[in-house]
Each structure stands twice: as structure tokens, then as C-alpha cells.
Amino acid sequence: MEINLSQEQGKVSVSVFKVKGNITSEVGLQEKAKEVHDAGIHHILLDLSEVPYMSSAGLRALHYIFSLLRAHEESDQATKAGIAAGTYLSANLKLYKPNKHVTEVLKTAGYDMFLEIHTDYKKAIASF
Amino acid sequence: MEINLSQEQGKVSVSVFKVKGNITSEVGLQEKAKEVHDAGIHHILLDLSEVPYMSSAGLRALHYIFSLLRAHEESDQATKAGIAAGTYLSANLKLYKPNKHVTEVLKTAGYDMFLEIHTDYKKAIASF
Amino acid sequence: MSSYFLRIEKASLNDLDGIILFIEESTKKLEVSSAVTKDVVLATLEAVTNILTHGYKDKPGWVEIVIQRNGKSLIVCFRDLAETFDPTQKPTPDISLPLDQRPIGGLGVHLIRNFVDEVIHQVPSQGGNELICIKKDIFP
Amino acid sequence: MSSYFLRIEKASLNDLDGIILFIEESTKKLEVSSAVTKDVVLATLEAVTNILTHGYKDKPGWVEIVIQRNGKSLIVCFRDLAETFDPTQKPTPDISLPLDQRPIGGLGVHLIRNFVDEVIHQVPSQGGNELICIKKDIFP
Ligand SMILES: Nc1ncnc2c1ncn2[C@@H]1O[C@H](COP(=O)(O)OP(=O)(O)O)[C@@H](O)[C@H]1O
Ligand SMILES: Nc1ncnc2c1ncn2[C@@H]1O[C@H](COP(=O)(O)OP(=O)(O)O)[C@@H](O)[C@H]1O
Q: pTM of the prediction?
């Protein structure tokens, strides 16, 4: 697995992680997210378009990054209501183009309820 | 497995094999049948009332004894017609009181179509 | 959940009575119905007889039997160190034929298939055979 | 019928890409649909990851994978020599809870159960573990 980082400017600075290869370990993703987070960037778009398979190690990484960025959410009324209603989607971590295998893993774990999945790159950046 | 032999006189001489214990080998039954056959007795009633389980080794023994005694069948018209129609039941080898486990093995192998199963001892002897 | 093991270093046909007792006791502990116990005993007789007569060619040989609950299924597993042979590939014999038109024998594998719901053959790492018999949906 | 074997003496997470290739190639030879291949790859990733991270505690260890057709079923079997552990007894996690109310992880066994029809855990004679995953009724 290879991770390439780039930065995009929307309403906020977004760090784009482009992953190439199967995600079978959480370590690389977590380390990169921590670095970016410590450098002051709190919005990450994970580009999964070149990931054939993802194991539960990838779910662990997503969970970790979700929690890492969670502290920086603006906790407005809408967010609070969403959390209470169980309809809350992360505003800081979003996914781009997971294939159907990866999507199935996300759904089977119930992660699709908490992470936006985008298929249009420009709209994904603009959504942050 | 223990086999006890006795002789009964009906219309013909019938050798009764009383088996005690599980039938898990064909050897004992086949040897005893051969002895009895060579001594000139061609009608055998196999008393299975004290057999808890029978394996396919028992089926092999039945098949062997069936064939051994088969040569002595009176081949009248009825027998021949029965063979042709597949409704032939051995006149020389019959079974007495197999339990439901043993009966299931006989049925699963399709042997119940060729061997009479008796539950009344006197009628069994008289039927030869 | 509990597994019950029986390992016989030098098994022969004389051990079959003891093997039946082992199956009856383990299925009792697993609270299996007597109908299922009967099916498992009958499948066991055939599986072990084949190992001893065909696999080990009537010489004493190592046999292991494992019986365990797996969710709603009961699993019985037979292991040996004889030559690898996959009985699941045997065609079904024609049991509608008159006896004198049939070969003697050839019914053991048919009986196993009839008494359990699924039969799997595997080759363990150390060689030999593992035959896994599954009775499905027998536990609540 | 054909079985496909992969044995790695000192397996680590780096071997997972190679293991995926092995599964893809063997399922292709067995003429399995791509949907089934996907399910088997995903179950394999979880089974092997658990062996390596929990069973062998991230140290290199012996792993064997066997994939074979069994009648209408496809069987995939994972063997290791780590401490015996039966994952089939793990309760199902509550995947309806919000992420921040869930522990991290605990999803591997749930994924395996979701991707195959039956999961059996056994202890081989030499110790360790054997996890048997069955995809049912996928062959004509
Ligand atoms: N464990 C085994 N090892 C080698 N060959 C076997 C084994 N089990 C079965 N066979 C072969 O398959 C055939 C059919 O077996 P089975 O249906 O049990 O009938 P039988 O044992 O009465 O011949 C046997 O005759 C034998 O050639
Ligand atoms: N092969 C194994 N050996 C030992 N323990 C295991 C094994 N597989 C799973 N476990 C235990 O079961 C738990 C749940 O496993 P799993 O559902 O795969 O989630 P995760 O691996 O993410 O914790 C693990 O945390 C571990 O304690």
C-alpha cells in the first residue's frame, strides 16, 4: 500500500490521501493522519479509487482518524441533533470513490452511516 | 458380536442365527453361513433382535449369504417372473426383528426389497 | 463450546464397539436427540470401517475422532494417516438394482451421505485424511 | 477434485497481497464467480490478519491455506500453529451504534461470518487452529 498526500483549498484546507493498493494494515494511514493533524489540518479526504481490497485494518484506521478529527468539529446545534438521532456524518473525514468491494466492507461494518462517500472530486472538496 | 446357532423344523429345516451385539464385520456371519450351507441346510433366519447397530459390513454379509443360498432356490415360474419384475424376495434368507436403526440401514441400501422382515417368530419359521 | 476427542494409536475393527460408546456419550453431553445420535453412529461406523479396511488395509492404524457443536450444527471429524483418498467423489450406487446384479459392498460412502447433511474431505498438513461430517440445524 | 494449497513458513502482514493473488488464481481455476471470489478474499483477509496479529502476536508464523470445491460448496481452510482460539464463539458487535460509542476494531470475525455461509473452528491433532469457511450452493 502506498499513500500520496496532496492539499486542496476549498472553504477550508483539505488534505487528500490517495491510497494505492490493498489496505491490510492500519499503521501507515494512522501515522500520516497524525502528522497532518499535528500540522494543523483537520479535514481529510481519503481517495480510495485505487484500492482493490480493504480489510478490517482499514476500518480501524478510519475509526482512529474519525476520532482524531472529531475533537475539531464545530459542535453546532445541527451536529448535536444529528449525533442524538444517529444521523451524524463526519464533517472532517470523507471518502472518495471506494470500489464495490470496499463499499461492502464499509456497509457490513455500519461505517457508511458515519462517513460521506463521494464520487465527484470537486464536489467532495467543496463539501468540507 | 456373538452368533448362536439353533435349528427349527418347519416345512424345511431352518438354521436360526441369533446375533448379539453390533454387526461391524462380515467375517463371522459369512463363515457360519458357509458351514451350515456345506452341511446341507439352505434356509437361514437371521435373528437381529439383539443387534443395536449394523454397518455396511452387515450388508456385505447379507449379500454374500443371499448369493450363497440363491443357487438352491426352486426356480419356478413365479420366482422367475418376480426377478424380472424386480419384486423378488429371497425364499432362503429371511430376517427377524431388526430394530429401527438396522432397518434404516437396510432401507438406505435398498435391501428391504429383497429380504423378508418378520416380527413373529413362529410365522417366520413357517414361512420357509 | 465443548469438543470431544477420541484418539486410538493402533485402531482395528475391534475398537468399533468402543467408538460407538464414545459417540453415544459425547452426543449425550451435547444434548443431541437420539435420532441424531443414531445417524452419527451409523456414519461413524462407515467412516472408520473404510479407514481401517481400505486406508490401513486391515493393519492397525492411528485414528482420531472429534465431535463438537458449531453454532446450530454438529460436526464430527475423522482423521487418519493413511494414503490420501477422497470418498466424496464416489458416484452414488444404484440401489434399485436386484441384489444379484449388484457388486458386493460399495455402500459405505452412500450410507454416510445419507446419514449426515454435508461431507467434506480434506488433507491435513501432516498428510493422511480428514473427513468432516456435518449435521445441520439440530441445535436451537 | 482439485485442492489448492498455500503454505507460508514465516507469514507476516506483508504476505497478504500474495495471499489475495493465490485466492484469486485458485478461485479462477475453480470457475467461481467474481462475487464469490470477492467474498472469499475478504474472509481470507480477516482470518489471516487475526492469525498473524492475535494468534502470533505480530511475530512471523506458519500459515496454511487450502481452497477446494466440495460438491456444490467451496471450502476455504486456514491453519496455524498458534494458541488455540475459537473465534466462532465471539458475540456479534452492535454495528448500529455511533462510532464514538464503539470500541475500535472487533469487526474481523463479524466480516468473516457475513462473507461466508458457515464457519467451523477445529483443533488439528498437532495443535493450533483450523478455521473452515464454507460458501454453499455456488456450484451447479
Ligand atoms: N479411506 C479409504 N481409503 C482408500 N480407499 C477407500 C477409502 N474409503 C473408501 N475407499 C474406496 O471406495 C470404495 C467404496 O467405499 P464404500 O462405499 O465404503 O464401499 P465398500 O467399503 O463396501 O467397498 C471402496 O471399495 C474403496 O475402494
Ligand atoms: N486467531 C486468534 N487468536 C487469538 N485471539 C483472537 C484470534 N482471532 C480473534 N481473536 C480475539 O477476538 C477478538 C475479536 O476479533 P475480531 O473480530 O477479528 O476483531 P479485531 O481483530 O479487530 O479485534 C480480537 O480482539 C482477539 O482478542
A: 0.83
